[in-house]
Amino acid sequence: MWRFRYVWDNIEAMIRNKTVLLGVTGSIAAYKAVDLASKLVQAGANVDVVMTRCATEFVTPLSFTSITHRPTVTDMFEVPDDFEIEHIALAQRANVVVIAPATANIIARLAAGIADDMLTCAVLATRAPVILAPAMNVNMWENRITQENLTRLRARGFKMVEPVTGPLACGSQGKGRLADVEDILTVISQALRAKTDLAGKRVVVSAGGTQEPIDPVRYVGNRSSGKMGFALAEAARDRAAEVTLITAPTALDDPIGVTVVRVDTTLQMRDAIARAAARADVLIMAAAPADFRPAAVSGSKIKKESTARMDLHLVPNPDIISEVRGNLIKVGFAAESEDLVRNATAKLKKKSLDLIVANNITEAQSGFGTDTNKVTLIDSRGKIEALPLLPKSEVAHKVLDKVVALLSAGPTNQGRNGRRK
Predict the structure, then answer these.
(1) Where do the H-state alpha helices sit in 255-339?
(2) For the chain, which residues make up each domain, given as ranges?
(3) pLDDT tens-digit profile of 136-172?
(4) 240: region left, alpha or beta (phi > 0 left; psi from -120 to 50 alpha)
(5) Whole-angstrom distance, CA of residue 17 vs CA of residue 360
(6) pTM of the predicted model, to two decimals?
(7) If you compute the radius of gyration of the chain from its CA atoms, what whole number of angstroms results?
(8) If pLDDT is split at 50, 70 and 90, which confidence band does 9 have?
């Protein structure tokens, strides 16, 4: 649910007063397009719906008209009241085109450049980004012809929301179910993003609290939920970055459009970050790696009855971000309970960071597990900016605004980070 709240905030901000051309084709999943249209309208979008003839066999045009309060287009030759060349008008006013569900048939026709109905004509006439959300039988999805058609469309710039695996209407089991509406909304928000200021940049984000095993059942850990790191990864993705998210165990779903690497321990996270950071432009260390780990791990569960007490000998874990070298922007986090600016500034200097995000974990609605955060941004030049309490999605963009400025400013004097001295 938290992830959907983030997506919903993002959608509302990006598509309010934008026009979405929603194409609906002949699949049993067409009924889900009604829910998609409804959520787009709720977010403030103007939604034009174009249905293929086969789609009208599964759901009525009136269903969409009732939700969008706009005519639903089904006929290539129907003359509108104000007489425009309708497929051109639809194509020109669309900010994004979404075909959900997209059948194997529509995919094949678009790959071949066929324009024989209102929807295909509009797609060929538009300059807006086009998103396809396929839905079909698993064998049709896996068919070599379908995959070749998808490859062609991707090469032409079409965006895909791949189907998911599960039970299909035909009784089969496999990949072919229409993606969840929230995932389609996520890709729409990507296509409509207001900023592309991280285009061409590789951003590595860490998230979550690592778990250091005591035995196969127990571990040493912390209360980090990973929400801030996930918000940062999604925000960087929405600003056109190539994003790798390295995350300790969380209850959060993998973000769409992000490369996700899952780890358990601090040592595993260190190794994963070292590999990813070697080719990165930015490292944002939002994770909360455990500071210590048990010196010895029992191979079997320690029985409560076998010992009167359990004494753990802990050894320090490495400081991951301090070990990262190279010509990249390094952003750290500081969760403090007192002397926020002083302690955070000391960490920034000790770890050779370009920026540190500090938050007082004793404040209400700020810190671990919450959907909001109240942070202070401190950069290597000594500039301090205290932000009010904000949703973590907004905090993420505030942090990335600073990152973009740092990238534009060029190397700092952080000699220990491999930069110009």
Answers:
(1) 266-277, 320-323
(2) 9-191, 202-292+310-410
(3) 999 999 999 999 999 999 988 899 999 998 887 777 7
(4) left
(5) 37
(6) 0.70
(7) 25
(8) low
Identify the CATH assignment for 9-191 out of 3.40.50.720, 3.40.50.10090, 3.40.50.970, 3.40.50.1950. 3.40.50.1950
Total number of residues shown for the chain: 421
For residue 241, CA distances in Å to 170, 185, 270, 296, 421 come to: 39, 19, 22, 40, 28
Characterize the bridge pairing of strands 72-73 and 46-51.
Answer: parallel
% the chain with pLDDT above 70 = 91
CA 32 remoteness from chain centre: 22
Judge whether 170 counts as a catalytic residue: yes
- E strands in 18-138: 19-24, 46-51, 72-73, 96-102, 130-134
Instruction: Locate 109 and state its tokens.
Output: 């026709």
Nearest to 379 by CA among 356, 398, 409: 356
Catalytic residue among 88, 170, 217, 315: 170
**Token code pair at residue 363:** 């404040």
* Contact between residue 178 and residue 216 where contact means Cβ atoms under 8 Å apart: no
Q: Of 3.40.1360.10, 3.40.50.300, 3.40.50.10300, 3.30.365.10, which CATH number belongs to 202-292+310-410?
A: 3.40.50.10300
Q: How far apart are CA 381 and CA 208, in angstroms?
A: 28
| Contact predicate 231/207, CB 8 Å | no
Intrachain domains 9-191 and 202-292+310-410 with the same fold: yes
**207, β-bridge pairs:** 247
CA 80, CA 72: separation in Å to the nearest integer? Answer: 11
With both helix axes pointing from N to C terminus, report the angle between 61-68 and 30-42 in degrees, rounded to the nearest 10.
Answer: 10
pLDDT greater than 50 at residue 132: yes
Compare 88 and 164 and report the one with higher pLDDT.
Answer: 164
- Which of 323, 333, 342, 332 shows the shortest CA–CA distance to 366? 333
Cis peptide before 101 (omega within 30 of 0): yes
Distance between CA atoms of residues 55 and 28, nearest Å: 9
Closest CA to 335 of 371, 362, 369: 362
